Amino acid sequence: MATISYDFEGQRKEVEITEGSERKPIIVLLHGTGGTKSDMVSPEFAPDNNYDHSSIFPGDVSIGWRYYPGVGVWSCCEPDPKIMDLLSWQDILSKYKFRTAVYSQVDPVGFLARPVAELVVVMATLQKNFPKSKFVLLAHSRGGLLTRQFLKDNPELARTITKVITLHSPHIGSSLASIASTIREVVETLQNAIGDIVLVLLGWLLDMADSDAYREMAVGSAYLTELAKGETAYPWIKYFTFGGTSVRLTRIRSWVYTAESAIPQWHLPPFFHERAVSEVPGISPIADSLPDLIDELTEGLGDLLTADARTRLPFATHQINHINHAEALWHPVIQAQVLRILGEDPSDVFPPGDDSSFWG
């Protein structure tokens, strides 16, 4: 790992560069709204939404003999455990000998003007330090809009870029900001029902909906209209977009007594208590329990923050995956698809039948 310094607005900042093959392009990793370079380097710690919502629940747990029947809820409430053995974008690309470049952007929840100006400095610095290298821009969420604005305004810096890959980017906007107050009311209702765990799980969604970044990205906004005006694809760049259609973040678990715990036995004490994991009815899973107010929050149409139909560009090849917004930072299926875009065969890491063959 090495670092390259650059100056932006009088501040000294750094880009992290991983080692890899000089015959391969350098992959510039661009995070999204509210993020930092950790999104692309260590998503298990930030944004910290790597819940294992698809694993089988554990079996019944024996409590023991009691004099009273076991009925109802043993304990409540907790989310699914975290997946901690995941691979970040930096991890998986380094595994295939790609050099990566990553940095934390200015104004991650503000307007895009300053992040665009910063990316100009970053790319100029990278091109100066690696004059013989080609580059690929791999961008998550708002990083895709950052990429488009940079390319539109700086054709001379785009000459060394061969591919642009955007992951769940709201290219045609997001409706999230327009219903921020409604989302807050729904989350507060859930909080009253099961406690502050709801704020732990969905507080970030409230922050996003209230941010300047999402107001700028509202569907039909002046910013997006101006960005699309006169925008064309560079013929030497191949463009790829990805969208997600799952709004499931995690299940809310509770431990409940089994039916047999309330049946007396020929024993003293007469009741043998056992507990089993169950989802909290009417609440679990989060965020499926949110009302389908907009496509972004509707299962099969969105990923919590973006709607698949709005993550597309007319000049890009598009792929849909049934994953949420955060999972685009580490999910093995989308990583396998991107590796195939980059000309790699990921079958040694991702076995056949993993739904990653779209680009094969």
Commentary on this structure:
The structure is a single chain. This protein is α/β, with parallel strands linked by helices. It has a domain of 223 residues: Alpha/Beta hydrolase fold, catalytic domain (Rossmann fold). Helix content is 25%, strand content 21%. The strands form 2 sheets. It has an 8-stranded mixed beta sheet with strand order 1-2-6-3-7-8-9-12, with helices on both faces. A 4-stranded antiparallel beta sheet has the order 4-11-10-5, with no helix packed on it. The chain is elongated. 41% of the residues are buried.
Rg for CA atoms: 23 Å
Order of helices and strands: EEEHEEHEHEHEHHHHEEEEH
- Measure the end-to-end span: 31 Å
CATH topology of the domain at 2-47 and 86-174 and 212-243 and 304-359: Rossmann fold
Range of strand content: 15-25%
Low-confidence stretches: 356-360
Largest sheet composition: 8 strands, mixed
Which features does this protein show?
disordered C terminus, Rossmann fold, eight-stranded mixed beta sheet, single chain, 360 residues
Short recap of the structure:
This protein is α/β, with parallel strands linked by helices and 360 residues long. It contains 9 helices and 12 strands. The protein has a domain at 2-47 and 86-174 and 212-243 and 304-359: Rossmann fold, CATH 3.40.50.
